[in-house]
Design brief:
By secondary structure, the protein is an alpha+beta fold. The protein is built from 4 helices and 6 strands; from the N terminus they run βαββββααβα. The strands form 2 sheets. The protein has a 4-stranded mixed β-sheet, with helices on one face. A two-stranded antiparallel ribbon has the order 2-6. It is globular and about 50 Å long.
């Protein structure tokens, strides 16, 4: 049974893809994070290339040979837009912290320690917020998006770094 299309307005991401060329096999917990981020993003997002009304958009997120973050975009007519390339340096510490927090979260979840789980989840949300703030600042002037969209994109940016900062 096909999943019904989610109606989008012109200021949204309709389809998202990770450049899997640099991805190694992911741990099931990380795969669940990826699936959740994409699902949440596609259910509700606000995203626009500044100066264009070409949405809804197709977005492909990848890392190039120089370890730069690349946001490749297409408009509603499937026309390629100029890619947005961002330095990953402002995100590096957060990405490492994100994986440490995720590992701790999943271990604590499996052990059933609800009190500690709440504390770890608060720290994880804080990292998401900080990552979203950095992404919003780096894209300022080029892309408009809401904070929740930036949070989901930050999760996906982290997942692209599996094997770079984490051995699993």
């Amino acid at each position: 049974m096909a999943t019904p299309a989610i109606p989008h307005n012109a200021h949204s991401i309709e389809m998202i893809e990770l450049d899997e060329g640099t991805i190694i096999q992911r741990h099931p917990d990380i795969e669940a994070e990826r699936a959740s981020a994409i699902r949440d993003l596609l259910q509700s997002n606000s995203f626009r290339v500044r100066g264009l009304d070409g949405g809804p958009y197709y977005l492909k997120i990848g890392i190039d040979e120089q370890r730069q973050l690349v946001l490749a975009l297409r408009d509603r007519n499937k026309q390629d837009l100029p890619p947005l390339t961002l330095s990953i340096k402002p995100f590096r510490r957060l990405i490492k912290d994100y994986f440490m927090i995720c590992e701790s979260y999943h271990k604590t979840f499996r052990n059933g320690d609800k009190t500690r789980l709440e504390t770890i989840d608060m720290a994880r949300r804080g990292l998401h917020n900080e990552g979203a703030d950095i992404l919003l600042a780096r894209c300022d002037g080029q892309l408009d998006m809401d904070h929740e969209t930036a949070r989901c994109l930050f999760t996906l940016i982290c997942i692209l770094h599996i094997g770079v900062v984490m051995p699993w």
